[in-house]
Amino acid sequence: AQTVTQSQPEMSVQEAETVTLSCTYDTSESDYYLFWYKQPPSRQMILVIRQEAYKQQNATENRFSVNFQKAAKSFSLKISDSQLGDAAMYFCAQTIIQGAQKLVFGQGTRLTINP
Amino acid sequence: KAGVTQTPRYLIKTRGQQVTLSCSPISGHRSVSWYQQTPGQGLQFLFEYFSETQRNKGNFPGRFSGRQFSNSRSEMNVSTLELGDSALYLCASTAGGYRTEAFFGQGTRLTVV
User: Fold this and answer.
1) B94 interfacial to chain A (CB closer than 8 Å)
2) Which residues pair with A73 in a beta bridge?
3) Between chains, do A103 and B92 touch, taking CB under 8 Å as contact?
4) Fewer beta carbons within 10 Å, N or C terminal of chain B?
5) C-alpha angle with apex A111: A105 to A113, nearest 5 degrees?
6) Best to test chain B binding among A45, A50, A51 (most B CBs inside 10 Å)
7) Dist. CA A1–CA A3, nearest whole Å
8) Over the stretch B37-50, which tens digit does the pLDDT of each residue have?
9) Contacts of A104 (CB under 8 A, 6+ apart)
10) Do residues B28 and B95 touch, judged by C-beta distance below 8 A?
Protein backbone atom coordinates (compact mmCIF):
# COMPACT_ATOMS: atom_id res chain seq x y z
CA ALA A 1 0.00 0.00 0.00
CA GLN A 2 1.09 3.55 -0.64
CA THR A 3 1.52 5.99 2.21
CA VAL A 4 2.75 9.56 2.30
CA THR A 5 3.82 11.26 5.51
CA GLN A 6 4.43 14.94 6.20
CA SER A 7 5.79 15.31 9.71
CA GLN A 8 5.56 19.12 9.92
CA PRO A 9 1.97 20.30 10.45
CA GLU A 10 3.09 23.94 10.42
CA MET A 11 6.14 25.88 9.30
CA SER A 12 6.95 29.57 9.22
CA VAL A 13 9.66 31.54 7.48
CA GLN A 14 10.69 35.14 7.09
CA GLU A 15 10.02 36.73 3.74
CA ALA A 16 12.98 36.33 1.35
CA GLU A 17 14.44 33.43 3.31
CA THR A 18 14.56 29.73 2.43
CA VAL A 19 12.37 27.00 3.89
CA THR A 20 12.31 23.23 3.42
CA LEU A 21 9.20 21.09 3.78
CA SER A 22 9.67 17.38 4.47
CA CYS A 23 7.89 14.38 3.00
CA THR A 24 8.47 10.65 3.21
CA TYR A 25 6.59 7.98 1.33
CA ASP A 26 6.31 4.26 1.07
CA THR A 27 5.49 2.12 -1.92
CA SER A 28 6.41 -1.26 -3.29
CA GLU A 29 6.22 0.03 -6.85
CA SER A 30 9.36 0.81 -8.78
CA ASP A 31 7.86 3.37 -11.12
CA TYR A 32 5.92 6.31 -9.72
CA TYR A 33 5.55 10.08 -9.67
CA LEU A 34 5.86 12.43 -6.73
CA PHE A 35 4.26 15.85 -6.52
CA TRP A 36 4.03 18.91 -4.35
CA TYR A 37 0.71 20.72 -4.50
CA LYS A 38 -0.11 24.10 -2.99
CA GLN A 39 -3.57 24.90 -1.64
CA PRO A 40 -4.09 28.61 -0.89
CA PRO A 41 -7.17 29.92 0.96
CA SER A 42 -9.10 29.78 -2.32
CA ARG A 43 -8.92 25.97 -1.88
CA GLN A 44 -7.84 25.23 -5.43
CA MET A 45 -4.99 22.73 -5.57
CA ILE A 46 -2.12 24.04 -7.67
CA LEU A 47 0.74 21.86 -8.88
CA VAL A 48 4.06 23.24 -7.69
CA ILE A 49 6.52 20.64 -8.91
CA ARG A 50 6.72 16.98 -9.91
CA GLN A 51 9.42 14.32 -9.93
CA GLU A 52 9.59 11.10 -11.90
CA ALA A 53 11.00 8.28 -9.79
CA TYR A 54 13.21 7.00 -12.60
CA LYS A 55 14.98 10.35 -12.90
CA GLN A 56 17.93 10.87 -10.59
CA GLN A 57 18.11 14.60 -11.24
CA ASN A 58 16.13 16.71 -8.79
CA ALA A 59 13.31 18.74 -10.33
CA THR A 60 13.43 22.53 -10.22
CA GLU A 61 10.79 25.14 -11.03
CA ASN A 62 12.05 28.69 -10.51
CA ARG A 63 12.25 29.23 -6.72
CA PHE A 64 11.02 25.71 -5.98
CA SER A 65 13.24 22.66 -5.96
CA VAL A 66 13.11 19.18 -4.52
CA ASN A 67 15.58 16.87 -2.85
CA PHE A 68 14.59 13.39 -4.00
CA GLN A 69 16.26 10.55 -2.13
CA LYS A 70 14.83 7.39 -3.65
CA ALA A 71 16.57 4.89 -1.39
CA ALA A 72 15.44 6.79 1.70
CA LYS A 73 11.98 7.37 0.19
CA SER A 74 12.27 11.05 0.96
CA PHE A 75 10.98 13.95 -1.12
CA SER A 76 11.49 17.41 0.39
CA LEU A 77 10.51 20.76 -1.10
CA LYS A 78 12.78 23.79 -0.85
CA ILE A 79 11.34 27.24 -1.39
CA SER A 80 13.96 29.93 -1.95
CA ASP A 81 13.40 33.66 -1.57
CA SER A 82 10.03 33.08 0.11
CA GLN A 83 7.27 35.48 -0.89
CA LEU A 84 4.04 36.41 0.85
CA GLY A 85 2.12 34.67 -1.93
CA ASP A 86 3.76 31.37 -1.00
CA ALA A 87 1.65 31.19 2.16
CA ALA A 88 -0.61 28.14 1.80
CA MET A 89 -1.09 24.49 2.70
CA TYR A 90 1.43 22.31 0.92
CA PHE A 91 0.65 18.69 0.15
CA CYS A 92 3.06 16.01 -0.90
CA ALA A 93 1.46 13.35 -3.13
CA GLN A 94 2.35 10.18 -4.94
CA THR A 95 0.86 8.25 -7.81
CA ILE A 96 1.92 4.91 -9.20
CA ILE A 97 2.28 4.57 -12.93
CA GLN A 98 0.37 1.36 -13.43
CA GLY A 99 -3.37 1.43 -13.10
CA ALA A 100 -5.73 4.32 -12.60
CA GLN A 101 -4.85 7.90 -11.91
CA LYS A 102 -4.94 7.95 -8.11
CA LEU A 103 -3.09 10.38 -5.91
CA VAL A 104 -2.19 9.53 -2.33
CA PHE A 105 -1.67 12.68 -0.29
CA GLY A 106 0.19 13.50 2.89
CA GLN A 107 -1.51 15.34 5.73
CA GLY A 108 -0.21 18.72 4.60
CA THR A 109 2.05 21.43 5.99
CA ARG A 110 0.71 24.91 6.64
CA LEU A 111 3.34 27.45 5.58
CA THR A 112 3.24 30.96 7.00
CA ILE A 113 5.38 33.76 5.57
CA ASN A 114 6.33 36.49 8.03
CA PRO A 115 6.88 39.94 6.49
CA LYS B 1 -7.88 26.78 -22.30
CA ALA B 2 -10.55 26.61 -19.63
CA GLY B 3 -9.64 24.83 -16.41
CA VAL B 4 -11.54 22.22 -14.48
CA THR B 5 -15.01 23.46 -13.57
CA GLN B 6 -16.96 22.16 -10.62
CA THR B 7 -20.56 23.02 -9.89
CA PRO B 8 -22.04 24.04 -7.63
CA ARG B 9 -19.39 25.75 -5.50
CA TYR B 10 -21.42 25.48 -2.29
CA LEU B 11 -24.24 23.22 -1.16
CA ILE B 12 -26.22 22.82 2.02
CA LYS B 13 -28.21 19.61 2.39
CA THR B 14 -30.16 17.89 5.12
CA ARG B 15 -29.30 14.48 6.53
CA GLY B 16 -30.92 11.72 4.54
CA GLN B 17 -31.06 13.68 1.30
CA GLN B 18 -28.99 12.91 -1.74
CA VAL B 19 -26.71 15.21 -3.72
CA THR B 20 -25.12 15.30 -7.16
CA LEU B 21 -21.92 17.18 -7.89
CA SER B 22 -20.65 17.95 -11.37
CA CYS B 23 -17.16 18.23 -12.85
CA SER B 24 -16.21 19.37 -16.34
CA PRO B 25 -12.59 18.48 -17.12
CA ILE B 26 -10.13 20.38 -19.22
CA SER B 27 -10.95 19.98 -22.90
CA GLY B 28 -9.29 16.85 -24.25
CA HIS B 29 -8.76 15.28 -20.83
CA ARG B 30 -10.29 11.84 -20.52
CA SER B 31 -9.59 10.97 -16.91
CA VAL B 32 -11.53 12.46 -14.01
CA SER B 33 -10.78 11.70 -10.36
CA TRP B 34 -12.70 12.71 -7.26
CA TYR B 35 -11.32 13.41 -3.80
CA GLN B 36 -12.87 14.19 -0.45
CA GLN B 37 -11.10 16.68 1.81
CA THR B 38 -11.94 16.96 5.51
CA PRO B 39 -9.98 18.40 8.44
CA GLY B 40 -9.85 15.02 10.16
CA GLN B 41 -9.13 12.63 7.31
CA GLY B 42 -7.31 14.93 4.91
CA LEU B 43 -7.50 14.25 1.19
CA GLN B 44 -8.92 10.88 0.29
CA PHE B 45 -9.38 9.33 -3.14
CA LEU B 46 -12.97 8.48 -4.03
CA PHE B 47 -12.85 7.12 -7.59
CA GLU B 48 -11.50 7.69 -11.06
CA TYR B 49 -13.17 7.46 -14.45
CA PHE B 50 -11.59 7.10 -17.84
CA SER B 51 -13.59 6.92 -21.05
CA GLU B 52 -16.83 6.38 -19.11
CA THR B 53 -15.39 3.45 -17.13
CA GLN B 54 -14.54 3.44 -13.44
CA ARG B 55 -10.95 2.29 -13.20
CA ASN B 56 -10.37 2.56 -9.49
CA LYS B 57 -12.35 3.16 -6.34
CA GLY B 58 -11.31 4.29 -2.90
CA ASN B 59 -12.48 2.96 0.43
CA PHE B 60 -15.87 4.66 0.66
CA PRO B 61 -19.32 3.17 1.27
CA GLY B 62 -21.63 2.38 -1.60
CA ARG B 63 -23.57 5.59 -0.93
CA PHE B 64 -20.84 7.30 -2.93
CA SER B 65 -21.12 6.70 -6.64
CA GLY B 66 -20.12 8.37 -9.85
CA ARG B 67 -20.32 8.26 -13.57
CA GLN B 68 -18.69 9.78 -16.61
CA PHE B 69 -20.36 10.85 -19.81
CA SER B 70 -19.13 10.56 -23.38
CA ASN B 71 -17.92 14.19 -23.29
CA SER B 72 -15.77 13.29 -20.24
CA ARG B 73 -17.90 15.33 -17.83
CA SER B 74 -18.33 13.49 -14.58
CA GLU B 75 -20.85 13.49 -11.77
CA MET B 76 -20.63 12.07 -8.31
CA ASN B 77 -23.64 11.24 -6.22
CA VAL B 78 -23.96 10.77 -2.50
CA SER B 79 -27.16 9.20 -1.26
CA THR B 80 -28.61 9.20 2.26
CA LEU B 81 -26.35 12.00 3.39
CA GLU B 82 -24.75 11.86 6.83
CA LEU B 83 -23.25 14.69 8.88
CA GLY B 84 -19.82 13.19 8.28
CA ASP B 85 -20.17 13.70 4.54
CA SER B 86 -19.63 17.43 5.06
CA ALA B 87 -16.44 18.14 3.17
CA LEU B 88 -14.77 19.83 0.25
CA TYR B 89 -15.10 17.60 -2.81
CA LEU B 90 -12.37 18.09 -5.35
CA CYS B 91 -12.32 16.94 -8.92
CA ALA B 92 -9.15 16.53 -10.96
CA SER B 93 -8.61 15.85 -14.63
CA THR B 94 -5.68 14.42 -16.51
CA ALA B 95 -5.07 13.79 -20.16
CA GLY B 96 -5.33 10.07 -19.52
CA GLY B 97 -1.80 8.84 -20.06
CA TYR B 98 -0.01 7.49 -17.04
CA ARG B 99 2.67 10.14 -17.01
CA THR B 100 0.67 13.32 -16.61
CA GLU B 101 -0.19 15.56 -13.72
CA ALA B 102 -3.67 16.19 -12.34
CA PHE B 103 -5.32 19.59 -12.64
CA PHE B 104 -7.85 20.40 -9.95
CA GLY B 105 -11.07 22.35 -9.89
CA GLN B 106 -11.98 24.77 -7.12
CA GLY B 107 -14.09 22.21 -5.36
CA THR B 108 -17.63 21.93 -4.07
CA ARG B 109 -18.12 22.69 -0.40
CA LEU B 110 -20.88 20.39 0.89
CA THR B 111 -22.43 21.03 4.28
CA VAL B 112 -24.83 18.47 5.71
CA VAL B 113 -27.09 19.72 8.51
Assistant:
1) yes
2) none
3) yes
4) N
5) 160
6) A45
7) 7
8) 999 999 999 999 99
9) A2, A3, A4, A93, A94, A95, B45
10) yes
